[in-house]
Design a protein that fits this description.
Number of helices: 19
Largest sheet: none
Order of helices and strands: HHHHHHHHHHHHHHHHHHH
Distance between the termini: 9 Å
Radius of gyration: 22 Å
Number of domains: 1
Length: 447
């Protein structure tokens, strides 16, 4: 691919420094997130009891779906901004930010209406595995989660744009602040026994405040540097939506396969049965969180390399991340599994202990996932989506069907084993079997 002479490539050391800066602040953000998980959870468990805590875990699990509410437009915009940034087109990057924000604001308003309607019409106490006496608090909790998700949709774009502009460290600084604010609010609400809805609102409010401040500052900075590129706004929106649609399908498939475990357990086996699973899942969450410290800021750096034709660097980096990610996942999962009972007891004391086979299943899944997310980061940056769409669809369908069957006839400790097996068959083997061809495709695309 021909690269215009005015476009200069960043050196490998510059790319590494950009990833390192973002990753360092990502560590701070994730430590703040882990503090929210490990410090706040015992307070919430004490305040709510095992039954309502299971409902709280189920309700807050839906917050992860907020990242998917943008219909893929955030990731699509990030890729486009990264390309514009690599080619020093600040006016085009600002135009993408403007059009992406408009589209996401419309999505947020539409979802807010749906959330209000569903909050009042659906029997949330039953969906969360609670009794009739919890009907009002369950409804209030559902409304809090729904409105929080709607507000977060347009606010999430600032972080994506900053990653595309190699400013991930700013994104993660605000994320860290938001998690710490939520930790303080959850502890306060729990010690004051304010109830399920208030403790859920406390978990949501911190990140929303941080995202609001980050969004305002980003707009002021980019608007001060340039004016939006002249051109057809409809064409820009169309490109954002086209690129974002494929990411949306992938996000929905991931949500269906990976975030429904706790809600499914609460629905089919009761909220109390979801508590030990939710606790174990949170312990092992440090593995994907750790991988994300590097892979999230690396995605737009890959895209910038593709945009300037430096495919050799991208290929070397992919091999490195596959190896180091696997080593990290294997080492960390081994430590967590060997000390699983002791970690659980030290963390939540006499709370219900999950089956040890659940720990082995979560460890196995995390190791397999490390290979998949490293490869997916490369493919997402390259815009190679077809194989991912096919494999993700089979992955989600297989997980949902087998997990409902397992919870209906067997026990919850089977769920991570199902996730790992279906992922291996539907995603890892096909993707790595076609790896050479996919890398050749990435090197010949026009960005």
């Amino acid at each position: 691919m021909h690269i215009p002479p005015m476009v200069a490539r960043d050196s490998p050391s510059q790319r590494a420094a950009s990833v390192a800066r973002a990753s360092a602040w990502a560590v701070a953000a994730r430590l703040a997130s882990l503090a929210g998980i490990f410090i706040a959870a015992p307070f919430a468990l004490t305040a709510l009891g095992p039954v309502e805590f299971g409902a709280w875990a189920s309700a807050t699990a839906f917050l992860y779906l907020a990242a998917f509410l943008d219909l893929g437009l955030g990731n699509g915009t990030m890729n486009l901004v990264a390309t514009a940034h690599a080619r020093h087109q600040a006016d085009l990057a600002l135009a993408y930010l403007r059009e992406g924000t408009k589209a996401l604001a419309q999505i947020g308003l539409a979802f807010a209406g749906v959330a209000l309607a569903c909050g009042w019409l659906l029997p949330w106490h039953r969906l969360l595995g609670l009794g009739e006496e919890h009907a009002e608090s369950a409804r209030a909790t559902a409304l809090v989660v729904g409105i929080g998700m709607a507000v977060s949709a347009p606010l999430s774009l600032a972080g994506k744009v900053q990653l595309g502009r190699s400013q991930g460290q700013r994104t993660y600084r605000w994320q860290a602040a938001g998690h710490l604010v939520s930790l303080a609010l959850v502890v306060f609400a729990s010690t004051q026994r304010l109830g399920l809805a208030a403790i859920t609102a406390a978990a949501i409010l911190g990140p929303l405040l941080a995202s609001s401040a980050n969004t305002l500052l980003l707009w002021r900075e980019m608007a001060g540097q340039s004016s939006p590129a002249p051109g057809d706004a409809g064409a820009l929106r169309s490109r954002i939506r086209r690129d974002g649609l494929t990411f949306f399908v992938l996000q929905v498939a991931a949500a269906l396969a990976l975030t429904v475990d706790v809600p499914l357990i609460a629905w089919l086996q009761g909220a109390e049965a979801a508590t030990p699973y939710a606790l174990a899942q949170r312990i092992y969450s440090i593995i994907p969180i750790g991988l994300g410290l590097v892979l999230a800021p690396l995605w737009p750096i890959y895209r910038q390399a593709f945009a300037t034709g430096d495919h050799a660097w991208a290929s070397r980096t992919l091999r490195t991340t596959l190896a180091t990610g696997a080593i990290f996942a294997i080492t960390t999962s081994t430590v967590l599994t060997l000390g699983f009972s002791q970690i659980m007891t030290a963390w939540v004391g006499a709370a219900p202990q999950p089956h040890i086979l659940l720990a082995y299943g979560l460890a196995t899944w995390c190791i397999l996932e490390s290979f998949g997310v490293s490869m997916a980061t490369y493919l997402n940056a390259a815009g190679i989506m077809r194989i991912q769409l096919v494999t993700a669809s089979f992955f989600a369908a297989g997980c949902i069907c087998l997990k409902i069957l397992a919870l209906t006839h067997f026990d919850a400790w089977l769920l991570p084993w199902i996730t790992a097996l279906v992922y291996l068959v539907t995603t890892l083997l096909p993707t790595f079997g076609a790896r050479r061809r996919l890398m050749q495709l990435a090197a010949t695309k026009t960005y």
